[in-house]
Amino acid sequence: MSSIDGLNKAFDSRVRLGIMSMLMVNDWLDYKTIKAELNLTDGNLASHIAGLEKLEYIMVRKRFVGKKTNTSYRITKPGKQAFKSHINALENLINKI
């Protein structure tokens, strides 16, 4: 088995790595917070969110806060497991060097 076999291609992007890292330590995060923290454009964030949602690694919640819509995200159990496995594979790779 190669040292990189345990890495998940879904997390190759620094943006997806950032999104998942933020969601691992927060229950729900809204779109504006993720966008600001990772310094992303709307289009860039939206495409990565869509990819992670398609894989069922994150879930979306849309609601109204006052008269404005609020979209927030949460990591799913499969997403948490996949991300932990990815981080463990990265640590194993680093420790082999």
Helix content: 40-55%
Q: How many individual helices?
A: 4
Q: Give the distance, in angstroms, between the N- and C-terminal Cα atoms.
A: 16 Å
Low-confidence stretches: none
What is the alpha-carbon Rg in Å?
15 Å
- Global shape: elongated
Counting DSSP E segments of at least 2 residues, the number of strands comes to 3
Assigned CATH architecture? Orthogonal Bundle
Order of helices and strands: HEHHEEH
CATH topology: Arc Repressor Mutant, subunit A
| Helix/strand structural class | alpha+beta
Superfamily at the CATH H level?
Answer: Winged helix-like DNA-binding domain superfamily/Winged helix DNA-binding domain
List the helices and strands and how they pair.
Elements: H1 14-24, E1 29-30, H2 31-38, H3 42-54, E2 58-65, E3 68-75, H4 77-95
Antiparallel strand pairs: 1-3, 2-3
In short:
With 97 residues, the protein is an alpha+beta fold. 53% of the residues lie in helices and 19% in strands.
